[in-house]
Specification:
- The structure is a homodimer of 380-residue chains.
- Chain A is of the alpha/beta class.
- The first copy, chain A, has two domains: 249 residues, 3-Layer(aba) Sandwich (Rossmann fold), CATH 3.40.50; 96 residues, Rna Polymerase Sigma Factor, Chain: A.
- In chain A, a hairpin with a 5-residue loop joins strand 2 and strand 3.
- In chain A, helix 1 crosses helix 2 and helix 4 crosses helix 6.
- The two termini of chain A are 28 Å apart.
- At the A-B interface, helix 3, helix 4, helix 5, helix 6 and helix 7 of A face helix 3, helix 4, helix 5, helix 6 and helix 7 of B.
Chain lengths: 380, 380
């Protein structure tokens, strides 16, 4: 997931401003879809705006693979990097914190404060590592459901919104909790990954598990398969962008030749950019979470045994707007369209909007007034 | 580069049959474009058909990044895998060995018998490793020129043909030796790589050079950065195929679940396929050659200082047919079209054909009667 290129100033909008995260501790056992149980879990989350008396104005924002709970505002007045969807969320912005109580939680299995492979297994007092249960998109959503109902007092969810892996969660919310959710707004996503997306994830996983520092997942905190994780991230990052976007941003521009002392130093700007992306990712993300989450993506399949998406969608009650992006080749328009078509075939209230942006899969994160309008109107 | 899916039986065609390779040893010094000189070099090559008395019926076939000199026929009667373009080359086939003297050489810098980083540096009696000069597409072509003129007695080249990196060599032949070449047939190629293609190559190179077994390129024969090379190959292999092709071939098919003992074993068929591709590649290809060749690809740029491709093409005398493939997203149709357009802007005899095949970049290698017809007619 790429950070927005700029902090957007949405017309007449303000900023969420200073925010802080909270930890929700669920002390009841949680059984994963695969049958494994953990005694409880933590979800780290943020909220912006206020829940109304009826508990009916909440919007849940679901993050993508490498995202987190910090989707708007800043953590200190010196914090120069706002949350990852700060252009979309705030007072007067498309997801308007003057109207809505906005919630975003780090996913179960994550590495940014929520319970995941790096967490201490209370039964052994040692990190779970690969003893952490295999997590699915459905498990993530079920854990979030506890957070919003048991901790935050949400009575019904005004909307669930998210892109990429977040969009999968949006769909899963609609299917699992049809009586609870009023609107679904999945973007740049798919009801099941195709072979190419699985293939890219598999190469990334192999880069990680074959890194000698992976140690079958039992690496010490702060250490681990940094080389493999950086390679996985660099490759994935290419799939989040686009041919055209990379050409516009980097083309064949070279960095100072003087700096390229050997043949295999970064020579082109795009190389230097990718290296930075890979390196910085290893400082903030856990390799095991990367493995678990990519598996969750690959196994996500709403087509079910019958292979008919509309059967799965029979359950959905929410109004749905699916947004695809012309230049997204990871989850291309066709896959997004197909979600809306299957909803329509199932007789649901659904629409599809295709936004013409050149920036690839990450288009949902960048400054895009056309997208802002769609989101704002859908949430009225 | 993918092997053809089947041994094609072109209408009324026969097979090249048993072939053997030869080694051309050039004992004169060779100075690379970067100014470095080696005392001589070897090119391993094969030929099929016979050179006519005038030395004017030769066709040079240029191979892609991971290809070699063995493009047709078999090496023994028990050899079940013919050369990589056996469907295209043979008696009565599009590149007709009854008419033409077909030459294919392993590139300078390669690892399949030609002089490259694994070769012994006669000045040190040790392998070159990273002391091997930085090789360019132009250097490859200049070495081939010695082979065909000094060793094989070719007086003029009837045609130069090749896809991908081979297509770059085809263009370079036309520019460097305009009086010598009659026809150019580049396929699935580009006059310069865009940022996305450079980015993928860079991730592959980093996977290799960060493998602890790389040892700055000085690994012993048969050993080396096999993990990094396999990762690089797997990733690259995805870019040689297509979304649609992978879906048709693998979809979301799973291999036996019983065989998937742990979460990170291959689960989907596409994963198992890619793992095999990566593994088998490390058995036949040298990691340093992979580094050198991908750099040659990235630096290839016929646009030159002026940024105007037609200026570079002023030199060309050959008739040219550029072939692009609809589903090729590594060197997409647009980049192939642009080659033909620039030739036309330069007043040259050039055309562009776009072949609608779903198999991505590797489409030039597969059974495709429409492509056979184009090649056959162009070579009349």
């Amino acid at each position: 997931m790429q950070q927005p290129e700029q902090v957007d100033t949405f017309a007449h909008s303000g900023e969420v401003g200073l925010v802080e995260w909270h930890d929700y501790e669920s002390s009841r056992p949680f059984t994963f879809q695969n049958g494994d149980t953990i005694p409880g879990f933590r979800l780290r989350y943020e909220t912006y705006g206020k829940l109304n008396a009826e508990g009916s104005n909440a919007i849940l924002v679901c993050h993508a693979l490498s995202g987190d709970h910090h989707c708007a505002g800043v953590h200190s007045i010196r914090d120069r990097k706002p949350g990852w969807w700060n252009n979309m969320i705030g007072p007067g912005k498309p997801i308007d914190t003057n109207r809505f109580f906005v919630i975003c939680s780090n996913c179960l299995g994550g590495c940014q404060g929520s319970t995941g492979p790096t967490s201490i297994n209370p039964e052994t007092n040692r990190p779970y590592h690969l003893d952490f249960p295999v997590v699915t998109i459905g498990d993530m959503v079920r854990a979030q459901h506890r957070l919003v109902t048991e901790e935050l007092g949400v009575q019904e969810m005004y909307a669930v919104v998210g892109g990429s892996m977040g969009g999968m969660q949006v769909l899963e919310w609609g299917v699992r909790y049809p009586e609870f959710v009023r609107r679904l707004l999945p973007m740049a996503t798919t009801a099941r990954q195709n072979a190419q997306a699985i293939a890219f994830n598999e190469v990334g996983r192999l880069a990680i598990v074959q890194d000698p520092n992976w140690h079958d997942g039992a690496y010490p905190p702060g250490q681990g398969p940094h080389v493999g994780l950086a390679v996985a991230r660099m490759m994935a990052h290419i799939t989040y962008l686009s041919d055209q976007g990379l050409d516009q941003k980097f083309g064949r521009e070279r960095i100072s030749r003087a700096a390229a002392r050997t043949l295999f130093d970064a020579e082109f700007q795009v190389e230097s950019y990718l290296r930075y992306q890979g390196q910085s990712f290893t400082n903030r993300f856990d390799a095991n979470t990367y493995l678990y989450f990519t598996k969750a993506l690959d196994r996500f399949d709403l087509y079910g045994e019958s292979g008919r998406l509309e059967e799965t969608f029979e359950a959905i009650r929410a109004r749905t707007l699916v947004v695809g992006f012309t230049s997204d080749w990871l989850f291309p328009p066709k896959q997004n369209r197909e979600i809306a078509l299957a909803l329509l075939r199932a007789g649901k209230n659904a629409g599809y909007a295709e936004v013409d942006l050149p920036l690839g899969h990450d288009s949902f994160l960048v400054h895009a007034p056309e997208l802002y309008d769609l989101v704002e109107r859908f949430l009225i």
